[in-house]
């Protein structure tokens, strides 16, 4: 068994008395949805406008079943002409290496109101409300503390990642970091201190809350507790540091190679040398007027 697999399984282990709950980030948004056909890639892309703010809207995954709601929503809008829709979504957060650069928020479609999903989360949440359950902590690339959503553990998922290719495995276990404004939190968000030894660091608490999405600020704001903070989180899966470093190394190498190929392609293009005109030649744009003959007197 590799070190990476050992780390994965260790992350999935808990104490004998397993705490209840799961990692999740799901909510309800309402807005005007627009689908656009990307002719180059022969696929549809979508966005949702909430108030005056526009956000990308993605399907949740690429399998046929997960694309069904995405295309079902498109067909409903085309047939009814009604673009304003109530959606159940996962938040999709992109953080950038520099802390000064603002993160970007998009959404992944889970279902829309006319799907008539039994026991739908939309029956529990109002518009712009989300259930967030995860690890309450700071991350290096974000000034605002986040709730980190890990991949929930199951035996089937563990078997999958043991057999999956390295890049697929790391991507599958990638965590989501949801920026949250929570002024009077009962527990402080964990912050890594490089000056302390591992035993002195402490750890992030598992919290489960209801929060509201704040369009424009691209943040979530605390609304209410759904359960007391827990020392031990539910079982989860986490990629090993060596695996993540290897995937990043391969990705950077691929980008460098692609850039080099593009530069090589540009330098190999034949240069067009403009033809030098002889003194008696003229360019095609030059028009020579013939001398006019004087009429005979």
Helix count, DSSP H or I runs of 4 or more residues: 5
* Helix content bin: 10-25%
Share of residues in strands: 25-35%
Q: Give the CA-CA distance, first to last residue.
A: 112 Å
Number of strands: 12
Note the main sheet.
10 strands, mixed
Q: What structural class results from the helix and strand content?
A: alpha+beta
SSE diagram, text form:
Elements (H helix, E strand, L loop, with lengths): L2 H10 L11 E15 L4 E8 L2 E7 L4 H17 L3 E11 L9 E9 L16 E9 L8 E4 L1 E2 L2 H9 L2 H7 L3 E6 L23 E10 L4 E12 L5 E2 L3 H27 L30
Helix pairs in contact: 3-4
Brief rundown of the structure:
With 297 residues, the chain is α+β, with helices and mostly antiparallel strands. It has helices spanning 3-12, 64-80, 155-163, 166-172, 241-267, and strands spanning 24-38, 43-50, 53-59, 84-94, 104-112, 129-137, 146-149, 151-152, 176-181, 205-214, 219-230, 236-237. The strands form two sheets. Strands 1, 2, 3, 4, 5, 6, 7, 9, 10 and 11 form a ten-stranded mixed beta sheet that branches. It has a two-stranded antiparallel ribbon with strand order 8-12.
């Amino acid at each position: 068994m590799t070190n990476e697999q050992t780390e994965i399984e260790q992350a999935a282990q808990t104490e004998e008395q397993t705490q209840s709950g799961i990692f999740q980030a799901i909510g309800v948004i309402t807005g005007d949805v627009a689908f656009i056909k990307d002719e180059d890639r022969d696929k549809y892309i979508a966005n949702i406008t909430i108030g005056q703010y526009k956000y990308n809207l993605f399907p949740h995954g690429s399998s046929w079943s997960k694309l069904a709601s995405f295309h079902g929503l498109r067909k409903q809008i085309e047939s009814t002409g009604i673009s304003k829709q109530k959606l159940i979504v996962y938040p999709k957060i992109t953080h950038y290496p520099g802390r000064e650069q603002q993160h970007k928020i998009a959404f992944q479609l889970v279902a829309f109101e006319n799907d008539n999903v039994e026991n739908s989360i939309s029956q529990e949440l109002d518009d712009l409300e989300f259930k967030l359950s995860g690890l309450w902590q700071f991350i290096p690339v974000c000034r605002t503390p986040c709730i980190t959503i890990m991949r929930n553990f199951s035996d089937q998922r563990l078997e999958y990642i043991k057999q999956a290719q390295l890049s697929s495995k790391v991507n599958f276990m990638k965590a989501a970091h949801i920026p949250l404004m929570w002024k009077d939190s009962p527990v402080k968000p964990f912050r890594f201190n490089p000056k302390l030894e591992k035993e002195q660091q402490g750890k992030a608490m598992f919290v489960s809350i209801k929060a509201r999405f704040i369009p424009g600020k691209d943040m979530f704001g605390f609304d209410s507790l759904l359960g007391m903070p827990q020392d031990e989180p539910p079982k989860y899966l986490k990629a090993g540091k060596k695996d993540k470093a290897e995937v990043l190394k391969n990705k950077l190498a691929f980008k460098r190679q692609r850039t080099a190929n593009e530069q090589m392609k540009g330098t190999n293009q034949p240069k067009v040398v403009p033809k030098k005109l002889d003194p008696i030649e003229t360019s095609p744009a030059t028009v020579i007027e013939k001398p006019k003959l004087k009429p005979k007197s």
